[in-house]
Design brief:
By secondary structure, the chain is α/β, with parallel strands linked by helices. It is built from 9 helices and 7 strands; from the N terminus they run βαβαβαβαβααβαααβ. The protein has a 7-stranded parallel β-sheet, with helices on both faces. It is globular and about 50 Å long. It starts with 8 loop residues before the first strand and ends in an 8-residue tail after the last strand.
Length: 258
C-alpha cells in the first residue's frame, strides 16, 4: 500500500534505538526523510553505519538549549517539517510514592512530558506550513490505566494525553492533526528492565510478574516496536486526515497494568 509519504519530512525524538528507531525505519521504508535525536551517543554512532538514510543528532529533550539547537539543525536538514514523533521518554523510578526521590520524579516528568512541549513548541510553526501535518505523541497504556509503583511515569503519560487533546483543538484550524499512541507491553530491554524492577520491589520472580502482566491482556504477546512504527506511519499519511485528538492503544486489549 502506497501511503503517499515519499519525501515526507519527519522528526523522531529518541530515534536512534528501540521504539524510536523502529518508527524512523518505518518512515524511511515509505520514502520519507527522517531526522532523529537521542541522548545515547553510542546508538547515534551505530545509526550512522546501520541506517545512513537517517540523520541523527545528540539532544536531551529536557534541555531547552539543546532542543533549540537540535530543532534548528533538523529543520535546516529537512527544509521544513510534515510530521513530529514525540517519542523520547524514560521509565522513571519504581517504588511507592512515599519512597520516591523527588529528583527522580522531576526528571521523569521533565523528559516524558515537558520534553514533548519543548520539541512541539518549536516544531509547530514549520508544521503549520505543511500540507499534511501531524504530531504523534507517544504516551503509554499507563497514561490511561495508571500503574502501581510507577506513579511518576503514569502521571507523565496521563499528561501527554491531555497535552495531545489540547494541541489537537488548538491546531485543528491550521490543519495539523495531533494524536497520542498508547503502547502496552512492548518487546525489548526497556520493558524487561521495568518488569525486573517490579519483581524486585514485590519480592517475586520475573516470570511471575510477566505472567501476572499478561493475565490482564486478551492477546498474550508483546507488542513489537515495528507495530508501533506501522501505526505512526499510518497516522502521518493522508489516509488518517480526519483522525485527530485521539489516544490510540496498541496493547493487545489490556485491562490493567499490575
Amino acid at each position: 500500500m502506497d501511503l503517499g509519504l515519499n519525501g515526507h519530512r519527519v522528526i523522531v525524538t529518541a530515534g536512534a534505538a528501540g521504539i524510536g528507531l523502529a518508527i524512523a525505519r518505518g518512515f524511511v521504508a515509505e520514502g520519507a526523510r527522517v531526522v532523529v535525536c537521542d541522548v545515547d551517543t553510542a546508538a547515534l554512532t551505530s545509526l550512522a553505519d546501520t541506517d545512513p538514510k537517517i540523520t541523527g543528532f545528540a539532544c536531551d529533550v529536557a534541555d531547552r538549549t539543546a532542543v533549540s539547537a537540535f530543532m534548528a539543525a533538523a529543520l535546516s536538514v529537512l527544509g521544513g517539517l510534515d510530521c513530529l514523533i514525540n517519542n523520547a521518554g524514560i521509565a522513571g523510578p519504581t517504588g511507592a510514592v512515599k519512597d520516591i526521590d523527588p529528583a527522580d520524579w522531576d526528571r521523569c516528568l521533565a523528559v516524558c512530558l515537558t520534553g514533548q512541549f519543548n520539541i512541539a513548541r518549536l516544531a509547530i510553526p514549520a508544521l503549520e506550513n505543511s500540507e499534511n501535518a501531524a504530531i504523534i505523541n507517544v504516551s503509554s497504556l499507563a497514561g490511561r490505566l495508571g500503574f502501581a509503583l510507577r506513579a511518576p511515569y503514569a502521571a507523565a503519560k496521563w499528561g501527554v494525553i491531555g497535552f495531545t487533546k489540547s494541541l489537537a483543538i488548538e491546531l485543528g484550524s491550521a490543519g495539523v492533526r495531533v494524536n497520542a499512541i498508547l503502547p502496552g507491553l512492548v518487546a525489548g530491554d526497556r520493558q524487561r528492565r521495568v518488569l525486573e524492577a517490579k519483581a524486585q520491589g514485590m519480592g517475586l520472580s520475573f516470570g511471575d510478574v510477566e505472567a501476572r502482566a499478561f493475565s490482564y491482556t486478551s492477546i498474550k504477546e508483546y507488542v513489537t516496536p515495528a507495530q508501533i512504527g506501522d501505526q505512526c506511519v499510518y497516522l502521518a499519511s493522508e489516509r488518517a486526515r480526519t483522525i485527530s485528538g485521539q489516544a490510540l492503544s496498541i496493547c493487545g486489549d489490556t485491562g490493567m497494568l499490575a
